[in-house]
Amino acid sequence: MSSPNAEHPLKVMIVDDHPPMRMGLIALINSHPRMSVIAEAADGEEAFEVYEDVLPDIVLMDLRMPGMGGAEATLAIRKRYPDAKIVVISTYDWDEDIHRALQSGAASYILKDMPIEDIAETVEAVYKGEATLPTTVAKRLAERERREPITDREREVLEALVKGRSNKEIARDLSISDETVKSHFKTLFAKLQVRDRTEAAISAIRHGIIHIDE
Amino acid sequence: MSSPNAEHPLKVMIVDDHPPMRMGLIALINSHPRMSVIAEAADGEEAFEVYEDVLPDIVLMDLRMPGMGGAEATLAIRKRYPDAKIVVISTYDWDEDIHRALQSGAASYILKDMPIEDIAETVEAVYKGEATLPTTVAKRLAERERREPITDREREVLEALVKGRSNKEIARDLSISDETVKSHFKTLFAKLQVRDRTEAAISAIRHGIIHIDE
DNA sequence: CTGCCTCTCACCCATTTGGGGGAAATCTTA
DNA sequence: TAAGATTTCCCCCAAATGGGTGAGAGGCAG
């Protein structure tokens, strides 16, 4: 594999659901001497299809998108192409988002408020196999490690909570007794270091454990 | 005032805290034959300062920014320059955000998931004095009208709630009795059409009444 | 097979929250 | 100034939530 140059630039694919952001990322990459955008997609499914078509050297992928998000798309692509290099770019530095993206096989996680030079640099660095994570992002990830891991069941309870359900309703939804729901909340309060359900809901949203909207 | 043409293009100013988005909006406007970006800013305060310096024909302004947001910046600019034409562009179509932006004097409110052609079109239309609001946005705004207006005090209570405070703590914070807090919640539940405080908190966030983060 | 973890459920009891009234004080504005 | 909205507070009572403790069933890893 020869290193990219003016004749054989690094082939980049852009994935983002916002047209102007897509335009900016394309302009950013194309203005770099050794990189060139060869494809774009507006959501996760399209990203997977287009990836197979064009087989880019690297993907610059948004995280939050309608339908299939960036983490799922990363997982899908790397399942078929384990060497795929994907840089996730997001608005938020929420620890669960970061964790999910990296778990899914993203090589890096960067933020949209970074200077465009840093974004381009990360893309090139990742292509070269240099693992880079911005300090802000790494710090958030470290914070997450310090938090006790939340189990699948607990996540389901949180999800129902954020939908506005009462203990009884959550119990019905999950086919368990409401005493069990209370029990889950007790452990959740401890893990999230909060005192009541409202705080728990907000905390879950702020950490990206549960996604509002859609 | 002569109409913009290739020699005298419409002078546009771009305000957004995300460098790649700024780059995209600039590229978008500059690729239009009758428009040209003459200045940019990364937050509300900078927007005001730069506006005074360059006096653009129109501003394309992001809503959510660290420090002074787009609505406050719009208000500040139009206080000094009542004829300033400002198009707010946002990720979210939350009714309170839309309302605040238009209340602040924005001429239109558009979304970042719109096609770039529509964005450019809106900017030009607004300059010509044609008021345009995307149907999605107009619909959200209409929904808001159907909701009973929330008072300032109630908003403060909601804000404290989203911070995770209990009734007693909210009472202490606002120097009122906790019976009064309960009273405010009673009316809030009715206005937001929810049954408990957790739902109220989520609803307040989803409508953009209270902003999480920062 | 034996811990360890998760999920499940139960009981008790204190506190918090929510729903029904009503009412005085203040502030706005027609 | 009088109507109207807002903010403040009160009472009562029912329902929901939260904290402590304990414990059985099932799964998974060493």
Descriptive terms for the model:
homodimer, 214 residues, alpha/beta, Rossmann fold, Arc Repressor Mutant, subunit A, 2 domains, 5-stranded parallel β-sheet, DNA-binding, Sig_transdc_resp-reg_C-effctor (chains A, B), Sig_transdc_resp-reg_receiver (chains A, B), DNA binding (chains A, B)
What does this structure look like?
The structure is a homodimer of 214-residue chains. Chain A has 2 domains: 10-144, Rossmann fold (3-Layer(aba) Sandwich), CATH 3.40.50.2300; 152-207, Arc Repressor Mutant, subunit A. A 5-stranded parallel sheet of chain A has the order 2-1-3-4-5, sandwiched between helices. By secondary structure, chain A is of the alpha/beta class. The first copy, chain A, is built from 10 helices and 5 strands. At the A-B interface, helix 1 and helix 10 of A face helix 1 and helix 10 of B. Chain A binds a DNA duplex (30 and 30 nucleotides) through helix 7 and helix 9. Chains A, B: This is Response regulator transcription factor. Chains A, B: The modification 4-aspartylphosphate is found at residue 62. Chains A, B: GO terms for molecular function: DNA binding. Chains A, B: InterPro entries: CheY-like_superfamily, EvgA-like, NreC/VraR/RcsB-like_REC, Sig_transdc_resp-reg_C-effctor, Sig_transdc_resp-reg_receiver, Tscrpt_reg_LuxR_C. Chains A, B: Residues 11-127 form the Response regulatory domain.
